[in-house]
Amino acid sequence: MASTRATHDILVASNRGPVSYTLDSTTGELTAKRGGGGLVSGLSAIGPDAGALWVCSALNDDDREAVRRGVGEQGVRMLDIDAETHAAAYNGIANSALWFVHHMLYQTPLEPVFDAEFRRQWAAYETYNRAFAEALAEEAAEGAAVLVQDYHLTLVPRMLRELRPDLRIGHFSHTPWAPPDYFRLLPDDIAAQVLDGILGADRAAFLTQRWADAFTECCQAVLGPGVAAETRIGVHGLGADADFLRERSHRPDVDERMAALREQIGVAPDGGARKTIVRVDRTELSKNIVRGLLAYRELLEDRPEWRERVVHVAFAYPSRQDLAVYRDYTAEVQRVADEINSRYGTAGWTPVVLHVKDDFARSLAAYRLADVALVNPIRDGMNLVAKEVPVVSDDGCVLVLSREAGAYEELGEDAITVNPYDVSGTAVALHEALSVPVGERAERTKRLAVAATALPPAQWFLDQLHAVRSAG
User: How much is the pTM?
Assistant: First the structure.
């Protein structure tokens, strides 16, 4: 039953919330930092009087301390879930099982191994999801709309439906959805539980039609025909926030980063400007950074005319470094970049300019400088970098885009498309992209920018909200 505090008409649930805390070990003072992103933009679009609440998890000890002290932000409820339970649910299940399945990342001769330890972690995932469902049930007003986000919270819709059948519940998947044959790597009962959990929602939504279709196919294969009929399926292709990006990319700190990057890039032997191939990614296994570097190496080997005339500006920001496989991957990115620089570099030319420290202003500077943007994920729900670069680019850029990125559905027509596993094919695509005439490049960029901004974050969120209210 709803409690007397249940006054919220719109609720969002996600693992990561809009705020995080830092505890000063000397003074004991807690400092709050607000984050950004599509959900933040969306909630701001509905206004402060809409009765909205964001339910999220404390992600670290400082967040938990804030919850225990009663420190909080208006419109946010942070859950103090036991640290061991959160780690097992987040790292053990969400990031090491569900993420790997949907991005098809397993080396199947050796993994996955669904053993007793996996079952222990799954029990923690259930506990974690139940904490969210109970908090949402407590906070939601009668008939409220609840938007549950992503693979961390697949069980919440069904749990919440059982607690509060009056609510209008939506679930949105920000990742790809695996095809049935790969999804069924999961133990049969777990696969069924994940699907049934999402089907507790009035509406399940995805970033592309391809991922929506895969979900429906998995329901038919695992649960049987017709089981998903009561849940509406929707598609909302999140776009770039053009106004924010264009304003933010012309602030003084970005100009400073551009000057520093230009100095690192240098000039060609004839005194002309060097071309730039830019990528900006986290060192997430699905982003395919290593194969991108190998393709660039093959370009330099097979097309020596590009030596000293092009620089690969690669930003690979460390991600999930608490998992060994991610630490190893980050190290391999650095190793391949160093090998390319050692083999081909000269006194006046560093072929790969690699940065591993996250710096948003520097990323925007690279966007503005890019002649070519390389976005070659193995598999990606959308990939906003592919959409952001054309919006910010100063002189136009050519997008080299993996056909396995969700953004391909909207941008593929004006991009040079690659098979992300085909290193030689990607090297050829890089040569083609570098060779596109300036006029054609500018025209491509204009069309890409229009497509990339068709559904900005605020509208993306509002469309979901209206669709869930209609479906309930």
Answer: 0.93
